[in-house]
Amino acid sequence: MSSRASNIALFIDGANLHATARTLGFDIDYKRLLKEFQSRGTLLRAFYYSVLAEDQEFSSIRPLLDWLDYNGYTVVTKPSKEFVDTSGRRRVKGNMNIELAVQAMELAGGLDEMILFSGDGDFRSLVEAVQRRGVRVTVVSTLASQPAMVADGLRRQADVFADLLELRARVGRDPSDRPPARERGEVRSPPVRRATAVSPCAEPDELIP
Description:
This protein is 32% helix and 22% strand. It is an alpha/beta fold and 209 residues long.
């Protein structure tokens, strides 16, 4: 009798994954990424997290979020916060670490494996907590860049570290498949249900599958 397929969930730190892929010189094909992990077990959920700014009507990332939202991903967004630093300069900050951590802990009881697409060292404590619930954690980032995109503590805490460079052949976009820029801007899908603004992290629309 064959063993039960593992229950898997993906947690994608959108800005971090985008920066890592760009550092390695390729774009993520999110359709291929989803298929890759669907082939590894029962994929219960694929979360994509992105911070958005509220003060602009058009977002260059919106077409990507639209596509993800209607093609198997759960898009989670929140507005960024603007502040003035001690030098009087306007700054924008925001991350989705709390949202990602809360949802990971909520799902942990039904998971066998968590796939975390981020190199952010702040997630080390989350990984440790999820592991205490019996969940195997794979961290996807890279050591191939200088400096490495993954925090050493996070990499060591994970049960498995997967270098994004080694996954390129399975989840990367073929450059010949990228549509012209004008075509990429003509996405006709419905608007994202959870946000209506622009990303300060600028995960661009060119990543649309």
